[in-house]
C-alpha cells in the first residue's frame, strides 16, 4: 500500500477528524429506591465535570413521579453546578395544577422545562386530555410561557409518533409546539442516522428553524431496547440484531458493543453537520463517559469540546 493510499484510508475513518464545538445534554430519571438513588447520584457526580448544557429529569406516565422529579431537579440545582431541566406533562392534572407546578419550579430557580403531552398511566391506554387540563404539548408550551419566560424543549420523532397517523401530521404537530414558544426540540432516540437526516429535510421544508437535538441511546440492555422500540414505533435494524446476537449472558462485551454503536452513530451525525447530542443515560455514567470522551468532551478540558491548547 502506498503512502497516498494509507492517507486516503485514514481520511475515510469516522474518527480521523477530531470533533470540535460539540455540545451535549443528559437525561436522567427519578429513582424509586435507595439503591437507585445511590446509582443516580454516583452517575451525576461522575458526569458533572463534563459540564453538559443541561440535564433533564423525566416525568413518569400519568404524572406518577411528580414529587420525585421535583425533588431530583431541586437537588441537582442546589448541590451541583449543572443546569437542570424538568420534564412536565399534561396528563392527569388540570391547568391550574400544572401551572402551580410551573410556578414552583420557577420559584425554586429552575428555568428550563421539557414540555410533553405525556402517556396515560396504563400501558397502551389511548391518550385522553384531563377535563380542564392542557390538551396537548403545544397548549402546555403556551401555558408555560404565560407563567414565566421558561426555556422550553419539546419532543420530536424522526420516525414519527405511533399516534400521529402520518409523517406530515407529526411535522405539523411539531410546528405547532414551536409556534407556541418552544426554543428547541429533542428527538426520540433512533438507530439509523438516515432517519434523522430525512426528518431534518422535512423539518426545514416546514419552515422550522429552532435547533433539533438528536437523542442518543447507548443500548445497555438489548432485549429491553427491542421491547421499548416496538412500542414506540422505532426501527431496530437487522445489523443491530446481528451485533448483539449471542451476548445475552455477556454483559461486559455487550457494553463494548453498545459503546461502539453509539460512538459511530454520533460521528456519522457529526459528519452530517450535527454538533449537539442529547444522551439518554439510563442513570448510568459509563457509556456516556466513553461516548463523550470520543466526542472530545472530557473533564478539566476546554469545554469548546475538542479545541487543542
Please give a handful of descriptors for the protein shown.
globular; TIM Barrel; eight-stranded parallel barrel; disordered C terminus; 11 helices; 309 residues; alpha/beta
Task: Give me the secondary-structure topology.
Blueprint: H1 3-12, E1 23-28, H2 34-47, E2 55-57, H3 66-79, E3 84-89, H4 95-108, E4 112-116, H5 137-147, E5 151-156, H6 167-179, E6 184-189, H7 193-205, E7 212-216, H8 222-232, H9 238-244, H10 251-271, E8 276-280, H11 286-294
Number of strands: 8
What integer is the average pLDDT? 88
Distance between the termini: 34 Å
**Number of helices, counting only DSSP H or I runs of 4 residues or more:** 11
Largest sheet: 8 strands, parallel, barrel
Low-pLDDT windows of residues: 5-12, 301-309
Computed over alpha carbons, the radius of gyration is 20 Å
Question: What is the overall silhouette?
Answer: globular
Could you name the CATH topology? TIM Barrel
Strand content: 5-15%
Question: Judging by the overall fold, what is the CATH architecture?
Answer: Alpha-Beta Barrel
CATH level 1 name = Alpha Beta
From the helix content, strand content and strand pairing, which structural class follows?
A: alpha/beta
Strand/helix succession: HEHEHEHEHEHEHEHHHEH
The strands making up the biggest β-sheet line up spatially as: 1-2-3-4-5-6-7-8
Number of domains: 1
Percentage of helical residues?
40-55%
Amino acid at each position: 500500500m502506498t503512502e497516498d493510499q494509507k492517507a486516503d484510508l485514514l481520511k475515510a475513518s469516522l474518527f480521523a477528524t477530531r470533533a470540535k464545538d460539540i455540545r451535549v445534554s443528559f437525561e436522567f430519571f427519578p429513582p424509586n429506591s435507595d439503591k437507585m438513588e445511590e446509582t443516580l447520584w454516583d452517575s451525576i457526580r461522575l458526569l458533572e465535570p463534563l459540564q453538559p448544557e443541561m440535564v433533564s429529569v423525566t416525568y413518569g406516565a400519568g404524572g406518577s413521579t411528580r414529587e420525585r422529579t421535583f425533588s431530583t431537579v431541586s437537588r441537582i440545582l442546589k448541590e451541583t453546578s449543572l443546569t437542570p431541566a424538568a420534564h412536565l406533562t399534561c396528563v392527569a392534572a388540570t391547568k391550574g395544577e400544572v401551572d402551580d407546578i410551573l410556578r414552583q419550579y420557577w420559584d425554586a430557580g429552575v428555568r428550563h422545562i421539557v414540555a410533553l403531552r405525556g402517556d396515560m398511566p396504563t400501558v397502551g391506554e389511548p391518550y385522553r386530555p384531563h377535563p380542564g387540563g392542557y390538551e396537548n404539548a403545544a397548549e402546555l408550551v403556551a401555558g408555560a410561557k404565560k407563567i414565566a419566560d421558561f426555556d422550553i424543549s419539546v419532543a420530536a420523532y424522526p420516525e414519527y409518533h405511533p399516534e400521529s397517523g402520518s409523517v406530515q401530521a407529526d411535522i405539523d404537530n411539531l410546528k405547532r409546539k414551536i409556534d407556541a414558544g418552544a426554543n428547541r426540540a429533542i428527538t426520540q432516540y433512533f438507530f439509523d442516522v438516515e432517519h434523522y437526516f430525512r426528518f431534518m429535510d422535512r423539518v426545514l421544508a416546514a419552515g422550522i428553524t429552532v435547533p433539533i437535538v438528536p437523542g442518543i441511546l447507548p443500548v445497555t440492555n438489548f432485549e429491553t431496547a427491542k421491547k421499548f422500540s416496538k412500542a414506540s414505533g422505532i426501527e431496530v435494524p437487522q445489523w443491530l440484531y446481528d451485533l448483539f446476537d449471542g451476548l445475552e449472558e455477556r454483559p461486559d462485551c455487550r457494553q463494548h458493543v453498545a459503546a461502539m454503536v453509539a460512538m459511530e452513530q454520533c460521528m456519522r451525525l457529526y459528519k452530517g453537520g450535527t454538533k449537539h447530542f442529547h444522551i439518554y443515560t439510563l442513570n448510568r455514567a459509563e457509556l456516556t463517559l466513553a461516548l463523550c470522551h470520543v466526542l472530545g468532551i472530557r473533564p478539566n478540558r476546554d469545554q469548546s469540546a475538542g479545541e487543542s491548547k
